């Protein structure tokens, strides 16, 4: 029986559930816990990556009340030692969507928080046609520049949001190098941080990224302490409560429902490159 694209796209979710049960005990708490958002909107639509604005505001208040200090990825990667007892967190946003500029950043600025926004540089000002849900609008050049001038960090999420492990070396290098140059031309400063689309990476990808000039990258939770310069983050989704998000930062329990849900959504997202398969993809 030939598998349909739908079954292929859903298979990572099934594998993710099994991986959570089998490998969940192997996680270690990172030195700087990280959260991964995609969009913050007043009224979430069907996408699981949409996080409600009202809930995000409550989360910012909760972090502030608990005396959390936010770090950009560049700051985290250059901090030789953090003060003992200080509570720090990475706040990151993948894709570089306009909703982040309109709804999340004003709340962060009001709390004195700083974030890292990873932009898909080949889509600024356009809709996300690379996604299953194509109606999300990307940041414009002016908005990207404004974010950087406000003290937040701009990082790369490649040029076209390609699943990098499916590309050959030359294509990976082009995705990373072109994105870096485009963003640097917009903000007028070096771009050294990277987020791998769909969480897709391996040592080959990271070595090419370092050769291209990147010094730090975020990974989906579960790869703590693999290689220097890589920082784990946990995805935040529409169904997460404020308490759920805070638990992602603090839980050390071997088995956690919050952690399991996050890992399963991560694996489910990796079905998108199968559903939106590209002609340049090759298994290398």
CATH class category label: Alpha Beta
Largest sheet: 8 strands, parallel
- Gross morphology is globular
Task: Estimate the helix proportion, in percent.
Answer: 40-55%
Uncertain segments of ≥5 residues (pLDDT<50)? 1-9, 11-27
User: What's the number of structural domains?
Assistant: 1
Explain this structure:
It is globular and about 50 Å long. The chain has a single domain (5-275), classed as Glycoside hydrolase/deacetylase (TIM Barrel). Helix 2 packs parallel to helix 4. Strand 5 (87-93), helix 4 (98-111) and strand 6 form a beta-alpha-beta unit. Strands 1, 4, 5, 6, 7, 8, 9 and 10 form an eight-stranded parallel sheet that branches. Strands 2-3 form a two-stranded parallel sheet. By secondary structure, the chain is α/β, with parallel strands linked by helices. 41% of the residues lie in helices and 15% in strands.
